[in-house]
Automatic annotation (TrEMBL):
Residues 153-217 form the GFO/IDH/MocA-like oxidoreductase domain. One of its GO terms (molecular function) is nucleotide binding. SUPFAM superfamilies: Glyceraldehyde-3-phosphate dehydrogenase-like, C-terminal domain, NAD(P)-binding Rossmann-fold domains. It comes from the Bacteria. Residues 3-117 form the Gfo/Idh/MocA-like oxidoreductase N-terminal domain. This is Oxidoreductase. It comes from Cochleicola gelatinilyticus. Pfam families: GFO_IDH_MocA, GFO_IDH_MocA_C3.
């Protein structure tokens, strides 16, 4: 079992501590948080060992799980990697693209594995259709949340939209060609609602909307490709696949047939893939343990985390030109 420790014991950090304790692939050695009073309270309530310093925790671990505020990601990750320990780091990977690139290069230099906590990649609805998404040419994503002061230290792009940026980059096999975006600050000092249109070199277009001041929650993405439409509801963990194939000469009475302007007939097929229940955070942590054990590239690599951040920062940069 891998000895694991958590840096940062806030809201998400506590969840990671609980799941690492449950995991059959990790031995939770403890945590470090910069707030000594909070650390004492967590240690007393849950029994997790609180370490006196970041260095002491890192020394005791094989893998360190960084769940601090984003602004501290770079400094923490650097210490972890230079100590020769494997790194799991929450999204966004770092505060700047330059920091992300440095972390990626350091991991390669010190020969350690690194994974970014893009949890929607492990959402069972997305995983159920992932292999069915082939060369999508139009993508639409909406990620809406009710207002919560936690996370508003960064733009809604880094807080919410980056989930969809990462998911889309994982299925579009093409480089980003152009980005148009707009963002509005309503309550926070940084944008609370944003829209981005991403054009890829292969012609695919992705239209993304994110808001953290909505009256209701929504996390949906729709993928349109040749002869297929695929929808994913990340919130309810449901998905739907609609496929079109050339209609048979003698379709049955219940077949849904469409005829286009050229007279070509297509039959519509509906598919609702099986979506098994899971804990996405536990799955991403255990997938990382597996990549370490097998010496393979993690599902969400540091390179992919850096690329998602690069696109997110390009979107934010676009706001300045409005």
């Amino acid at each position: 079992m891998l000895k694991a420790g958590v840096l940062g014991a806030g809201h998400l950090g506590k969840i990671h501590l609980k799941l690492l304790k449950q995991s059959t692939q990790y031995e939770l050695v403890g945590f470090f948080d910069s707030d000594p009073e909070a650390s004492k309270a967590i240690e007393a309530e849950f029994g997790y060992k609180s370490f006196p310093s970041m260095d002491a925790l890192i020394e005791a671990c094989d893998m360190v799980d960084v769940v601090t505020p984003t602004i501290y990601h770079h400094a923490c990750a650097k210490k972890v990697i230079e100590a020769g320990k494997h790194l799991f780091i929450e999204k966004p990977i770092t505060h700047t693209v330059e920091e992300a690139n440095e972390i990626r290069d350091l991991a390669k230099k010190y020969k350690v594995r690194g994974q970014v906590g893009q949890v929607e990649r492990f959402n069972p609805a997305f995983m159920a259709v992932n292999k069915m998404i082939e060369n999508p040419m139009f993508i639409e994503a909406h990620r809406l949340a009710e207002f919560n002061p936690r996370g508003t230290d960064v733009s809604v792009v880094l807080d919410l939209m980056i989930h969809d940026i990462d998911a889309i980059l994982s299925v579009v096999n093409s480089k980003v060609k152009n980005i148009d975006a707009s963002g509005v600050s309503v309550i926070s000092e940084t944008p609370d609602i944003a829209n981005a249109r991403i054009e890829f070199e292969n012609g695919c277009v992705a239209n993304l909307t994110a808001s953290r001041i909505s009256m209701k929650k929504m996390r949906k993405a729709r993928f349109f490709q040749k002869d297929a439409y695929i929808s994913v509801d990340f919130l309810t963990k449901k998905c739907e696949v609609v496929k079109m194939k050339d209609a048979p000469k003698d379709p049955d009475d219940f077949a849904m047939i469409l005829t286009n302007a050229e007279g070509v007939k297509k039959q519509i097929y509906f598919d609702n893939p099986n979506v098994p229940e899971n804990n996405a955070i536990l799955d991403e942590l255990e997938a990382f343990a597996n990549s370490i054990a097998t010496d393979t590239t993690p599902i969400v690599s540091l390179r992919q985390g850096a690329e998602a951040l690069r696109v997110a920062m390009q979107i934010i940069e676009n706001f300045k030109h409005i």
